[in-house]
Design brief:
The chain has eight helices and three strands; from the N terminus they run H-H-H-E-E-E-H-H-H-H-H. It has 187 residues and is mainly α. It has a three-stranded antiparallel beta sheet with strand order 1-2-3, with no helix packed on it. The radius of gyration is 17 Å and the shape is globular.
Amino acid sequence: MKNVTTDEHERTKDYLSDSEMKLLLQASKQTRYPKRNYILLLMIYRHGLRVSEAVNLKKSDVNLKESRVWINRLKNGLSVEHPISGDELRAIKRYLTSRKDNLPWLFVNERGLPLTRQAVNYITTSVGEKADLPSVHPHTLRHSCGFYLANKGYDLRLIQDYLGHRDPKHTAHYTRVVSSRFEKLWS
């Protein structure tokens, strides 16, 4: 039996690369609800959302004028406001324009109810299969966010705040496979 602490670095890959994320987002556009599914997966990825955080998002959490979204972190995380980039903002506007309801939730199903955790799991898994990416789950996208930021060289403390971690040991996980951190060791 493996020692969990000692062999933590030997875990299987639990994130998507940039190119894999592009495939996933492209595949989301080929679903029954392409606008909703695209922005759902994009926001989970870009903001490192947990499933419960995504399904709890309300339209009022999104400030379209200032390109900001309020992320109410769960699991005793630190809630923060994140910027929304231009492509994401345009996708949110397209999605909201396509809706014919006045419901408060950002992500709704065809019955006018907020998406459930199970629905988000199903959407993510099925879009992953459509993109030929096995074993993609919503938390994979959260990890992909952390790895993306670490690979870009962002400070661990910034990543910690961005993902809402109170304990830095949760954030340190994202630096474990960042090979670029070794680049200038011998130059």
